[in-house]
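Format is sequence with structure; example below:
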Amino acid sequence: MTVVIAPDDPRVDDVRALLENHLEFCREVTPPEHVYALDVEGLLDPSVTFFSARRHGVLLGVGALKRLDRSHAELKSMHTSKAARRQGVGRAMAAHLLAFATASSYQKVSLETGSIEAFAPARSLYTELGFVACAAFGEYIASPDSTYMTIDIGHRGGSSV
């Protein structure tokens, strides 16, 4: 069964519900001052391109890319529904976001994720995709609650991940 990843509107009911689940999870396991997940309004910012992953119209996951500057983007709001976990949805979304970043002429994509065990699957996925640890970037401040990662995509030359 094919997963279709396409631009979407974070205000759509099923997307909004999944984003609320994502924010609830982040708030449960992360101190409030270190929850950086974007809410619906944040995802509507013109600097953000938001995508959903669907199979036969059923929402499986979401992800976004936020423009930091002309050559640097940030991977944001990656979340897979509980029912779709361990099916490659997160990997497909991350690969799609990296391909979109490459096609958009970004040279680097960075991300912030939690440092506790609950975020270990995310950190593992990002490492498998070639992300490496880095210092806090953009407006982030170094914190033991966060892990910062980056990947240089400048060498990809427009090819997909």
In short: The two ends are 20 Å apart (CA to CA). The chain is about 30% helix and 30% strand. Confidence is low (pLDDT under 50) at residues 156-161.
